[in-house]
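Researcher: Structure prediction, please.
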Amino acid sequence: MSLHLRQQQQPPPPPSVDPYPLSPRAAVYGMPHRPMSSFLLGRAGLLAVLSLLVLLGVFLPWSGPMAALFSSSSHLGTAHGSLSRWKDYTLAQAAAFAARNGTVVVCAVSRPYLPFLNNWLISVARQKRQDQVIVIAEDYATLYEVNRRWPGHAVLVPPASDSQTAHKFGSQGFFNFTSRRPRHLLHILELGYSVMYNDVDMVWLADPFPYLKGKHDVYFTDDMAAVKPLNHPHDLPPPGKKGRTYICSCMIFLRPTRGAKEVMRSWIEELQNQPWSVKRKSNDQPAFNWALNKTAGQVDLYLLPQAAFPSGGLYFKNESWVKETKGMNVIIHNNYIIGFDKKTKRFKDYALWLVDDHSNESPLGQI
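Model: Predicted structure follows.
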């Protein structure tokens, strides 16, 4: 199915609802062309009308609510009534809609990051994986905007965040935003799906799924800039100076196994034990590393190859390494830098800012 057709289709209702309710207009238009009066007065016409009424009586109670839920409009202001129904759209429904081969690709976004979401989506679409994407919106503006343009792919898990503070690194709003991540991922695992999580300041240069070798519980990337051998081990690296590892929490793949769920529960517990304060501006990544360290003996962990999944501190700051690994890079993370303008400029400097010239490749179009 082409990308443009995909954008126009309406998401299917949950399994308990007939996904193909009878359309009365289709039934009428399917008849041979003849005067309506003779059609209605004839015996065949009367039988057809009676049959149609019976079918409508059966299907309409089911099709009505779901059609309303997934209705969309090109004008946000005039469609407030229909769009407000997305408040009731659940993560379970979104996962059932987007999953392919039991797997979804997830990101979490607040409104200021919409341009980065679009940039990331273009790169994902180039690898034919956009249909698997679920956007976890952190505010209602993002929920409505994404579903207006791309129905069914955005969901909001209450409570909604403050979109004006959730994007400021080091702020309490940012902590509140990122600390919800393991709960979302655990929920998806408990629904029985495998899930890949990405931050949206990433760009795919190739399909990452062939690199998810074996049947491990949790796959992750090193956040360090130090160069590893091309054939480095895939075990959890040794702890650093702070007594923990430096694994990135921005690119994770999880299978719906007991081990992966245990890591998510441990991550949630670590976040609860390290709340944000003005003095100690916590974020989710140290807690993720503590969770990995504490469960390492019980869970099957897998470090992805550095050449394929480099940190921003390596890819953007080690030109010789980039030349040596040309053609091996899969996902580039624009970290080791703070601020929208700085991240955008860096992407542009490395020809990784795609939205200016390729927005037609995104399921969201031009934002």
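Model: The longest strand covers residues 247-254.
Researcher: Thanks, that helps.
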